[in-house]
Amino acid sequence: MDYFFYPKSVAIFGSFRKGSIAREILRNVVEGGFEGKIIPVNPKGGEVEVAGRKFKVRERLDEGVDVSIIVIPAKLVPGLIRELKGLTKGAVVISAGFSEVGNVELEKELVEAAKEAGIRIIGPNCAGIFGVHGKFFGSFEVRVRPGGLALISQSGAFGGAALAMGNEEGVGFSAFVSYGNASDLDESDFLRYFADDPNTKVIALYIEGVKDGKKFMEALKYATSKKPVIILKAGKSKSGARAAQSHTGSLAGSYEIYKAVFKQTGAIEVEEMEELFDAAKAFEMYSRAGRRVAVVTNSGGPGVLATDKVERLGLEIAKLSDKTIEELKTFLPPQCSVKNPIDLIADADYDRYRRTIEVVCKDENVDSILVICVPPIFIPSEEIARAVIDAKCDKPIIVNFMAGELVRKGIKILEKEGIKNFPTPERAAKALYWLSSR
Predict the structure, then answer these.
(1) Which of 37, 66, 177, 327 is surrounded by the fewest CB atoms within 10 Å?
(2) How many CB atoms lie within 10 A of CB 314?
(3) Looking at residues 234-253, what average pLDDT do you find?
(4) What is the pLDDT of residues 259-318, one digit of tens each?
């Protein structure tokens, strides 16, 4: 499916008047820096200008392209697909008005037309796709920074919100696909594809329901054998299941069955969007972590909160060796607590953090370190960020810098080095829990 996510040419079918979806997709493709051929198509022809580039709108597609994005009335889509035989490898059908509103026969006609034409379909009733490393933003959703997360979303609106939230959270994406009604390609196909995609480190999946349970389970098993798969399942309650069926026309089924499948295949299930991104951030940095955690903090309260959460999640607060404790005592002020959690007290500076992290990291009883920073106004957060970066440590380090304006500059420094921040001690602890569950 490289032609979808790393295309060299794209055709966009639809109206290009101001405010139209096809025009916004064209704008996204251009502004996103797509380096291949771009062909807008509309039977009326004409010209369209977006982002300082002028395009002649062709009345029909008369040369081959890798992928076609279709935003025309639903009833016209099957006919267009037949016309595209031999001219496109894949089609992303944004158009709604198929099985999700009861037009099952029209969707069947679309699938039959695609089979006859030898064209693979994403959609219909979807928000489009991104191939971020291919600089291809074939959607009307907000563009994202490059990274390692592939987001597969049954819901276009959820996908759009998730992309925006990912930007806020500092998450980098390899790809995004909203697959809507899954008339042809479905979540299982994308799980297998991203499992083998070299730019994808972690896969996140939002699903309401699947149509082929066996296919899904086999694909999920394959994907989790290659990389972490994080799943947010909607439609768990009876009312939610009914809503899911009316939304994308799929059967949500019994949640207990899904839960068992996730457990058997080693997928990581999360409860909400915030958790999805926290898990994704953790796996972008590390492939896994052990269960024994050391907490390093300059504030007692957050250190206690982190300790409580670590233990509630079934992880261990690591018992530091006598050697580690004695070495910490050689340079830490006597007011500091050298038992885990290690409290460096409020005036902890660059040197105190860096040396503590390095000493604790050498302890054989420690698998990972949770570093908390609540900087006083006289110690800039940038200083502590550099201490985390400079510390010589080969074990996973999860950071919680809080809060707000006080730590903004420090967080930026960390992010430049690929270190993601978790805004609360509890969320940082949960990140270590997910890493330990692999």
Answers:
(1) 37
(2) 10
(3) 55
(4) 999 999 999 999 988 899 999 999 999 999 999 999 999 999 999 999 999 999 999 999
CA 135/CA 199 separation, integer angstroms: 13
Average pLDDT along the chain: 93
Q: Quick one: CATH architecture of 141-285?
A: 3-Layer(aba) Sandwich (3.40)
Extents of the domains making up the chain: 1-124, 141-285, 288-436
pLDDT band at 249 (very low <50, low <70, confident <90, very high): very low
Crossing angle for the helix pair 350-361 and 381-390, nearest 10 degrees?
A: 30
Q: How far apart are CA 354 and CA 370, in angstroms?
A: 13
> Position 36: which residue type?
G
CATH match for 288-436 among 3.90.79.10, 3.40.50.720, 3.40.50.261, 3.40.640.10 = 3.40.50.261
Q: CB burial class (10 A; 0-12, 13-18, 19+) of residue 229?
A: buried
Residue 167 Rama label (left phi>0; alpha psi -120 to 50; beta): alpha
Residue 362, burial from CB neighbour count under 10 angstroms (0-12, 13-18, 19+)? middle
| pTM of the predicted protein model | 0.89
258 CA to centre of own chain: 21
* Residue 237: predicted pLDDT: 57
In sequence order, the 6+-apart residues with CB closer than 8 A to the CB of 285 are 396, 418, 419, 420
